[in-house]
Amino acid sequence: MNKERMTAFSDGVIAIIITIMVLELEVPHGSELVELRPVLPVFLSYIMSFVYLGIYWNNHHHLLQAVNKVNGKILWANLHLLFWLSLIPFVTGWIGENELKTWPAALYGIVLLGAAIAYFVLTKCLIAHHGKNSVIAKAIGRGFKDSLSVVIYVLAILLSFLNPWISVALYIIVAIMWFTPDPRIEKNLR
C-alpha cells in the first residue's frame, strides 16, 4: 500500500484535534485585559498542547517522507499514535481548568508518554517493513532523543506528585528538544 491515505488521514485527525482544542477556549465576558486573567491557565495549556501537536505533526510528516509504502501493522501503529494524540484536548482542558494540580499534570504526562511510546512503535514498524538498510532505518538510528524523552516523561509524571510545576517544566524541556524536526531524516533524504 502507498502511504498517501495514511498521511492524509493523520493530517486530518491532527487538524481536528487542534480544532477541538481551540473550540474549548472560552471567550471572556468584558472588554478589559483583566477579563483574560481567569482564562490564562487554559490558554497557556492550549499553547503547550498546540506546540506538542505541531511537533508530532511535523515529525510525523518527516518520518513518512523517508518511506514509500505501509502495511496493516503500520496502519494500526499509526492509529495507536493518533489515539494518544486525540486525548490531548481532554488533558489540556483538565490541566488548564485546575490550574496545575497533581492529577491533571500527571495524566497530561501519561498521555504524552503514551504518544511517545506509540511514535516509537510506529518507527519500529516502519523500519521492520522497509528493512534494516532502508533510508528510514539509517535516519532513525538508535534514537537517543526518543529514549531520553520517555525517561523525562516518567520522571515528570512521578514529580507531578511532588510539584506539578516541575512536571510542566520537564514537558516543556521535551518540547524544546523536539521543536526542530528530526534532522536525521532530512540528512538521510538528501
Overall number of structural domains? 1
How much of the sequence lies in strands comes to: under 5%
The helix-strand sequence is HHHHHHHHH
User: What class do helices, strands and sheet pairing give?
Assistant: mainly alpha
Instruction: Determine the number of helices (DSSP H or I, runs of at least 4 residues).
Output: 9
Shape, per Cα inertia axes: globular
Give an overview of the whole structure.
- The chain is mainly alpha-helical.
- The protein has one domain (4-24, 38-189).
- It contains 9 helices and no strands.
- The chain has helices spanning 4-24, 40-65, 72-86, 88-97, 102-130, 135-140, 144-159, 164-178, 183-189.
- Helix 1 runs antiparallel to helix 2, helix 1 runs parallel beside helix 3 (72-86) and helix 5 runs parallel beside helix 8.
- The longest helix is centred in the middle third of the chain and has 29 residues, at 102-130.
- It is globular and about 55 Å long.
- The model has no long low-confidence stretch (mean pLDDT 91).
